[in-house]
Amino acid sequence: MNYLSRIKFLGLGLLTCWLMGCANTSIPADSATQASAPVLGKTELLWLGQAGFRIKTPGGKTIVIDPWLTAGPKAPQPYKSDLSALGKVDLLLVTHAHVDHLGDAPDIAKLNNTVLYGPADMITPLTTLGIIPANLGHRFNKSGSVKPLPGIKVTAVQAEHSSLILWKNPATGKNESHPAGEAMGYIIELENGFKIWHMGDTGLFGDMKFIAERYKPDLVLMPIGGNFTMDPEDAAFAIKTWINPKRVIPMHYNSNPMAPGTLAEFQAAMRGSLTEVVPMKEGQTLSF
């Protein structure tokens, strides 16, 4: 059989196979190329007061952010008196070193043997001062991302704020101030693709629009207290003009008289927006 005849023979064979249903025969896929099963379940969010939250992920992991508990005036019981009440903490995030954000994070890290993720120049003094052991600190910076747990990705994003560690030196008994790098916010993508933007402490900045367009958060946790951060009017401007998420939870208010912004002022400023304002009370849990 010459070359042309062989081609015709093969073509006839393929046509016959197709007519007989061979084309519908499934071919086992390589395990590396098979799509992973979607993670079902909801995201559970507990407000710990100020900028602190506990997130229970659809995959059953626990994330704690900015836990100001034992000294937090609005921290709910039993977490205020017993850090172990948080349960096993799988991921610990801190946006910057101010006491109402760093809070009890070092103690939670040591209690759970859990790595504290935060701005690079905050983690360094925490370890060099002996506040946490070096193996419990992970340094990263704005635009950097980490995958600390299966199916979970955290990207550090811009925040317009400052950062400073106030530390009582055990040798002298005196308080010391130590520079702690730059404050950050976080885009937290969970196992089912749900994205939370914890803004940390921040004022207005134009790249809020870029962050929203790039990462498309489903839920934004936004400071509204004023003085140290955006006030209710600035926060509403950012949501309506640049971000336009499905939902926003106001935070960083109601705990400090120097941050006087209120929920009512934010709700009034948000009139006309398609974004749902989801108010929470300290100690309340919501599911998404």
Radius of gyration in whole Å, from Cα? 25 Å
Q: Kindly report the average pLDDT value.
A: 90
Q: Name the CATH superfamily classification.
A: Ribonuclease Z/Hydroxyacylglutathione hydrolase-like
Number of domains: 1
Coarse shape = globular
Strand-residue proportion: 25-35%
Report the top-level CATH class. Alpha Beta
Spatial order of the strands forming the largest sheet: 6-5-4-3-2-1-16
- Largest sheet, described in full? 7 strands, mixed
- Work out the helix count: 7
Q: What descriptors fit this protein?
A:
single chain; 288 residues; alpha/beta; Metallo-beta-lactamase, Chain A; seven-stranded mixed beta sheet; 7 helices; 16 strands; globular
How would you explain this protein's 3D organization?
By secondary structure, this protein is α/β, with parallel strands linked by helices. It has a single domain (39-274), classed as Metallo-beta-lactamase, Chain A (4-Layer Sandwich). Helices cover 23% and strands 25% of the residues. It has helices at 3-19, 99-102, 105-112, 120-128, 208-215, 232-243, 263-269; strands at 44-49, 52-56, 62-65, 91-93, 116-119, 137-140, 145-149, 152-158, 164-168, 175-179, 184-189, 195-198, 219-223, 247-251, 276-277, 285-287. The strands form three sheets. Strands 6-5-4-3-2-1-16 form a seven-stranded mixed sheet, with helices on one face. α6 (232-243) links the parallel β13 (219-223) and β14. α5 packs across α6 (232-243). The N and C termini lie far apart (68 Å). The model is unreliable at 1-35 (pLDDT under 50).
